[in-house]
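=== RUN LOG ===
request id: a7f3
mode: sequence -> structure
chains: 1
length: 190
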Amino acid sequence: MPHIIRGVSDYLVRRCLDSGRIGSLLIFSPPGIGKTTLLRDLASRLGGEFGRRVAVIDTRGELYIDEMFRDTLCDFLIGYPRAKGIEIATRSLSPEVLICDELGDADEARAILTAQNTGVPLIASAHAASISGLLARPNIRLLHDERVFDCYISVARERSAGRLSRCFTFGCVTRDEAEGLICRSSSAVS
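=== RESULT ===
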């Protein structure tokens, strides 16, 4: 069920805007950890308080919640296959950043490579338990080899007193570090 949790993308917003330009990020974790919730909050903030033109490819309608995206510069392509949505958004919406959830197939990889040639950064998610598991996926590996992503962000939810809390831990692996499968830094956000 899509739901609103505001502020969970603070670390990602800082990471995205750190150098003054939005870099391409791939967020990964096993299913059910909160990648979609993070992407939703990030898209809302980039298109809202930071005034960036955001194109969101929302294949299954999981990212859009009207209340979060009113008065933002976010355009949604809902129900499109990711590859087609990426192509349409890049050609016709003039985005400053593309956002999509759960990458994985070959058509998506080809569409992303084409979009990267236009200079539009991509923030996306994928299922994987580790950076090595992520890069073992052939289409993700292709994107890595083509240097699409500046940074890989692993996400975990912390347990406290036997219950999952709303505290997320983020580990960042730069594109170059990913080759050696080294996790350099992490940060926690409540």
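=== NOTES ===
The longest helix spans residues 35-47.
Helices lie at 10-17, 35-47, 66-69, 82-92, 106-116, 131-135, 138-145, 175-180.
=== END ===
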